[in-house]
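Exercise 3.2. Students should predict the tertiary structure of the chain below and write it as structure tokens, then compare their answer with the key that follows.

Predict this chain's 3D structure.
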Amino acid sequence: MGIKSFQGKRDSSQVKEDSQILVADYMTQKLITFKENDTLDHVINQLITYKISGGPVVNDNNELIGIISETDCIKHISESKYYNMPSDVNNTVGKYMVTDVDTIDKNMNIFDAAFKFISSHRRRFPVVENGKLIGQLSQKDVLKATIKVQGNTWK
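Answer key:
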């Protein structure tokens, strides 16, 4: 007597797709951006208001020139406000932003991007195309992609 399959008839809709899930599918395109001459007080207010942990710094041509984060703002606080010193007009984004910014390609697979987050210890990656800022991918965006994939293909 032969062994019978207890799986039943296979439904063609259960076949996995080979399409990749790309950064472009989950990146945020409506960004809160900052200018080099913005004050850090303005940045701190924006971070609190929009509940974000940082944002890209762009020039007038929307070209990425840096990134400013909560940590950068805390450096400002530890250098001046802790000692009850008045805010200096030179406390601008340009003074505290990080200019060596890692970016990510919009055509990268979302799971390769997840690995890049793990290996770099970054919380966000700007997405640049032809020198212009077109979006940003955060760790939360990767989590959203994972939930969608889990809902569609994992059991």
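Discussion points: The first strand starts at residue 54 and ends at 58. The helical segments are 23-26, 40-50, 70-79, 93-96, 110-120, 139-153.
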